[in-house]
Amino acid sequence: MGLVFLFILLPIFAKAFDWKHHNNKELPEILNEVHAKCPEITRVYTLPLKSVLGVPLYAIEFSTTPGKHRILVPEFKYIANMHGNEVLGRELMLKLADYLCDKYNEGDENIKKLISITRIHILPSMNPDGWQRATETGGKDYLIGRNNNNSVDLNRNFPNLNRIMFSNEESHIAHNNHLLSMVDRLTQPIQPETKAVIMWIMAIPFVLSANFHGGDLVANYPYDESRSGAMTEYTQSPDDHTFRHLAQVYSTNHVDMSDPNRKGCGYDGYNFGKQGGITNGAAWYSVDGGMQDFNYLSSNDFEITVELGCKKYPEAESLPEEWNRNKDALLNYIWEAHIGVKGVVTNGISGEPLSNTIIHVKNITDSNPVDIMHDVTSVHGGDYFRLLTPGQYEVTAFQSGFLPETKVVNVENRPFQEAKRIDFKLLPNPMYENLDTKSFQSQDYNTYQDEEDKHEMQNLIIYNRLANRPEPVLSPSSYS
Hints:
GO terms for molecular function: metallocarboxypeptidase activity; zinc ion binding. Helices cover 28% and strands 19% of the residues.
């Protein structure tokens, strides 16, 4: 009888989350403890490449079908510890994984619904080598450990797609998305950590994401790089209204990020709470080669950058309080993967899904309709996701060889609900001529500065093609 009683109580006394700064060996152990508690809804895996020092980049996925993209289920990701000495996000991500699992097991209806209709990926540390160096030197310096082990700032290391986008705007070129194939040279070698994340972005059709930093308290949204090249200049993207909304979702659900009366950070003590706890990236300071803008311009993913606080390496005893300050913001932001519209694009005759269909949106809410000059595309199953704020829109599906189709949709504020579904069944265009358009192979490789640069670009173009693979090119964790 006593044994039965003990068996019943064991789940209640499951190992509590240990608030501390987890090292690079303990990080995968935490993720696998979560997987052991929730094996049916989680998967621990590693990104394709390791850090400079050979440390795997571990991620955990939450889904009712781990390892698979489900049609009409948006893909979401969180990335932390890109700068190795900015460590709070790393611990928040480990706690978030533990929390999602525990709440799911407890039968929390909100969390169960969120996991059932969203595929959530969490990468606690993009720069484990920098974390190691920052920790070994006491975690007190503002710069030590920021870069990877090749002394490269990973948030300046992505291919600069902004310059391509801005050039296209000036030249009135319509191409405004998935710009990686247009890169003709790199300004510096792509680091293994950066390359791993690029491959991840290209392999999984992410819809929404955020990455976490430290040093201030603000939610930062695109563009991060200024259009004119100025050090400080508000540089709006075509989706400026949606990005402002996304940033405000995080800031207003944080305990005090949007508080105009809180204490500010930095040498001048400026309080971003006076502007709602949000900022346009380039209006703060211009960053080229950043991950945030790369997501937006290379894929269908909308990403913001969250600065979690003035201290880059807070004391371990402050971590529980920091979790409580960020918990609601972390959860509410994931739900934003369901704003706007989604649907499936198919061949109206055969019913086959049509990938790479361009989804173009015009905002017709006001008397002056505005084309949103950033398109998304359908993926390998024909499904698409278009994040939008409330209003009235014309949504048009374009596919080579088919007649375009336009539908008018009213997007409403529907908290904790799935996006409105708008499907398209495109009919073949009888007047279509199969033009011999330029392919990826038409890149002029003579523009490369050297053979190493050429090799890197060939790899990136290959990664870009991975966007329509049916399964992500990712490795299972050796700990699974």
